[in-house]
Design brief:
The structure is a single chain. This protein has eight helices and 13 strands. Strands 1, 2, 3, 4, 5, 6, 7, 8, 9, 10, 11, 12 and 13 form a 13-stranded mixed sheet that branches. By secondary structure, the chain is an alpha+beta fold. The protein is globular.
């Protein structure tokens, strides 16, 4: 009989999960794994069949009360045999007692509902080529976010995410092949966004802003730094201004997920959320 065991993933394993996500057509970032592993080194589980990785889930803990589930994947030739279900249960056990979020693809949403998750909103991935000359509003300056005090970025990001995520954020903005921009008005942070190189269109996330004009300027400026002209943003429909902006910038929807929660839906600044950070870690 084959031996199946569930183990904590190594840093190299997390890199492998990026390849699995690519096989699913999710277009992961080329260096996402560094920031993912930094977020919670024990937060990634691998199911191994006779020592070979065959299924996975990420169950990253944030603070004392929140967790995010992602990377729920099983190699195609072994689906339907219960290996993924075993890893799923182990992952949920690690997040027991917390409110848990995930971004679910349509094919899995009914399964997630049966596990107690409910839909809070939908995300649409908007892709395309953005005009390079969208100027920021009067009085707003765009700067390299990495030149600012990290505490300023962390405090601003906390408005849009249920818990502080400093370890993740510090790695997210400094990993190779990405650009992080901040929008400043009168010495205050009014926008923040990161672009990262991917296997296909470069992706922008997070995209936080105090107005659609600031968000549009950030997207335009980031696009100008991308090696590929096309960019992609996972836009939450809970913010209608974000959807309108994506359409005004000439982007078109190409892929959809649902933000789902088991437990209470966290209170965050949804009006300033123009693009989620990642489907895997929230």
């Amino acid at each position: 009989m084959p031996t199946f065991e569930i183990t904590t993933a190594s840093a190299d394993d997390v890199g492998m999960l990026g390849d699995w996500a690519h096989d699913e057509g999710w277009n992961p970032g080329l260096t996402d794994d560094r920031a993912f592993f930094a977020a919670d080194p024990c937060g990634f589980l691998i199911g191994r069949l006779d020592g070979e990785p065959v299924t996975s889930v990420s169950v990253v803990r944030y603070g004392a009360c929140f967790g995010f589930l992602g990377f729920y994947l099983t190699r195609p030739s072994l689906r339907g045999r219960g290996y993924g279900t075993q890893v799923w249960r182990a992952g949920l056990a690690r997040l027991s007692g917390r409110s848990v979020g995930l971004d679910g693809v349509p094919a899995q949403q009914d399964n997630y509902r049966r596990s107690g998750f409910h839909t809070a909103w939908s995300n649409a991935r908007y892709e395309g080529v953005v005009p390079p000359d969208v100027a920021p509003p009067a009085g707003v300056t765009l700067v390299d976010a990495r030149t600012l005090p990290f505490g300023l970025l962390s405090t601003y990001d906390r408005r849009f995410f249920p818990e502080a995520r400093d370890s993740f954020l510090a790695s997210w903005i400094t990993a190779p092949r990405r650009t992080a921009l901040a929008a400043i008005r009168d010495g205050s942070l009014v926008g923040f966004a990161v672009l990262r190189a991917c296997r296909a269109a470069s992706r922008i996330g997070p995209l936080h802003a105090d107005s659609p004009e600031v968000a549009g300027a950030l997207v335009s400026a980031l696009t100008a730094t991308a090696q590929d002209t096309a960019v992609a943003i996972d836009v939450p429909d809970i913010n209608p201004a974000a959807v309108r902006l994506a359409e005004q910038l000439g982007l078109a929807p190409s892929f959809g997920t649902a933000r789902m929660y088991a437990g209470p839906v966290p209170e965050t600044d949804r009006a300033g959320l123009y693009g989620i950070t990642s489907l895997e870690l929230g």
